Backbone:
């Protein structure tokens, strides 16, 4: 499997760090493994090498709960660390196309649709790293790295379609950054 982080970390002031883990995973998959979560947080807080903007929200401040939202802020962070990215409509077809195009991506899901015992009004972020097809080359499964549930997870296409957050966009690299070497495109 790709060298991805598989567990969330505790960051003071953040309720959730799944987006941070996904940002770091996207950078690792794209061969930018020198960038760590610490640098991502510092840039997002506006204190990285005296540059950056206040992109992250710290808990107990007036704006929001702690964490990162799916927005241009995520794209800005990846662009800063030399990984050109964009937002795209989050659909099964776009996710499959991005993976087949050698891109790396982060999606937003409704965790209660995937894991019955979990609910989070802010959603949950996953790094999509591969797909699987049947004998007729119909898409059947996605492979994702889920920082809440132990790493690599195989999700059926129909379940994934039901889990996608409708009002969110996926963060996807603009260019091909991966080359596949096995039957699951991981």
Residues:
């Amino acid at each position: 499997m790709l060298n991805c982080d598989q567990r969330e970390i505790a960051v003071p002031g953040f309720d959730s760090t799944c987006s941070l883990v996904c940002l770091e995973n996207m950078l690792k998959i794209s061969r930018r493994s020198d960038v760590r979560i610490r640098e991502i947080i510092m840039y997002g807080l506006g204190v990285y090498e005296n540059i950056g903007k206040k992109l992250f929200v710290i808990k107990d401040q007036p704006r929001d709960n702690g964490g990162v939202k799916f927005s241009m802020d995520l794209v800005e962070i990846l662009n800063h660390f030399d990984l050109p990215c964009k937002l795209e409509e989050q659909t099964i077809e776009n996710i499959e196309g991005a993976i087949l195009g050698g891109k790396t991506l982060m999606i937003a899901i409704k965790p209660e649709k995937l894991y019955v015992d979990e609910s989070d009004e802010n959603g949950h972020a996953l790094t999509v790293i591969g797909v699987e097809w049947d004998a007729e080359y119909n898409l059947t499964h996605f492979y994702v790295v889920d920082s809440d549930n132990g790493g690599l997870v195989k999700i059926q296409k129909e379940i994934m379609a039901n889990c996608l957050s409708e009002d969110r966009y996926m963060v996807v690299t603009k260019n091909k950054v991966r080359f596949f070497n096995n039957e699951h495109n991981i």
The two ends are 7 Å apart (CA to CA).
